[in-house]
Amino acid sequence: QVQLRESGPGLVKPSETLSLTCAVSGYSISSEFFWGWIRQPPGKGLEWIASIKHSGTTHYNPSLKSRVTISVDTSKNQFSLKLTSVTASDTAVYYCARCSGGSCYRADYWGQGTLITVSS
Amino acid sequence: QSALTQPRSVSGSPGQSVTISCTGTSSDVGAYTYVSWYQQHPGKAPELIIYDVSKRPSGVPDRFSGSKSGNTASLTISGLQAEDEADYYCCSYAGTYTILVFGGGTKLTVL
């Protein structure tokens, strides 16, 4: 059974860097799939952030690309996201997911999500 | 403003059918068959219910079906059940620059 679990700080101050990790269990991250991050501001819709393959191939949402870095750690079977210079508009539930293809249009397994609040 | 346009809400009675539209452009929905639909219950992660316009992942009831015509994709839910009440999101691959776009979501109410 594929399971994903996000971990993060919960609260981040404006202008700081948000770091999130997604631990994958029940499936090797060194597979043909991509692994992605998708977020959802409270009461709003979904926004794809980035995705990565174990080989290091990455894809980024162009609207966030300048502030985002996605990385993978195959030894720990996990992948991570860094988002710099956060503002209140980055407040959202952040999900990690397994994706068929780099765009994550087809994400078949999701984590439960972690709420990140940007506030001083 | 989401890239794909969905109705904010739709409703139907148990047993009826409802269709949710998802309108994009010739650069996303109209250009590719990489259109997916997600169901999201309150407080839960989205669940993939349709991919590649009309394919259903294993375990998704055949009451859920997808189609596409031109720049508009559609999700039809037949034989509505109370548990179908949820938010539904469409998304589409949009090329090598934009990559992926989502609709704003549609709230389905089962009367």
Q: Number of helix segments of chain A?
A: 0
- Count the beta strands of chain A: 11
Helical amount among residues of chain B, as a percent range?
under 10%
Succession of helices and strands of chain B: EEEEEEEHEE
Shape of chain A: globular
Characterize the biggest β-sheet of chain A: 7 strands, mixed
* Assembly classification: heterodimer
SS-based structural class of chain A? mainly beta
Structural summary, described in words:
The complex is a heterodimer of chains A (120) and B (111). With 120 residues, chain A is an all-beta fold. Chain A has no helices and 11 strands. Chain A has strands at 3-7, 11-12, 18-25, 34-40, 47-52, 58-60, 68-73, 78-83, 92-99, 107-110, 114-118. In chain A, strands 2, 4, 5, 6, 9, 10 and 11 form a 7-stranded mixed sheet that branches. In chain A, strands 1-3-8-7 form a 4-stranded antiparallel sheet, with no helix packed on it. In chain A, strand 4 and strand 5 (47-52) form a beta hairpin. Chain A is globular. The mean pLDDT of chain A is 96. Helices cover 4% and strands 43% of the residues of chain B. Chain B has one helix spanning 95-98; strands at residues 9-12, 18-23, 35-40, 47-50, 64-69, 72-77, 86-93, 100-102, 106-110. In chain B, the strands form 2 sheets. In chain B, strands 1, 3, 4, 7, 8 and 9 form a 6-stranded mixed sheet that branches. In chain B, strands 2-6-5 form a 3-stranded antiparallel sheet, with no helix packed on it. In chain B, strand 5 (64-69) and strand 6 form a beta hairpin.
